[in-house]
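Supplementary Text 2. Reproducibility record for the structural model of the 134-residue chain.

All settings were left at their defaults, and a single model was retained for analysis rather than an ensemble. We include the record here because the model underlies the residue-level annotations in Supplementary Table 4.
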Amino acid sequence: MPLHLSLRPGERIIINGCVLKNGPRRQTLEIENRADVLRGEEMLEEATARTPARRIAYQIQIALVSHAHRADLLPQITEGLEALARALPRFAAPIAEAETCLQAQNFYGAFRALSAVIRHEDTLFARFSPEQSL
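Retained model, structure tokens:
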């Protein structure tokens, strides 16, 4: 079953490590075989990877788009996921899913599996940020 992607004008997408930018009109792409795909709205910036789950997701993103860095990053990602599982046992299922996806070389699946953990971190940091009045 093909993957249908609808791209907004100017939206970036990464397919198998190649960064593409859509032109001035909305476009739809069909990807008919297995490919590593990351949409612009999902991409993390290094500067925003400040929490444990975001750092791991950023490393997974780099592994997804850069085959050259995968071998170096996999041990770091695995170690980070193990530490994250110890720190957040409540999120053992999505973290285990990320590890399973990594073992299958499904980097996008691993990246997506961490989304619930990232949302949890965002909630915690928003609750305890210095801008909040106590």
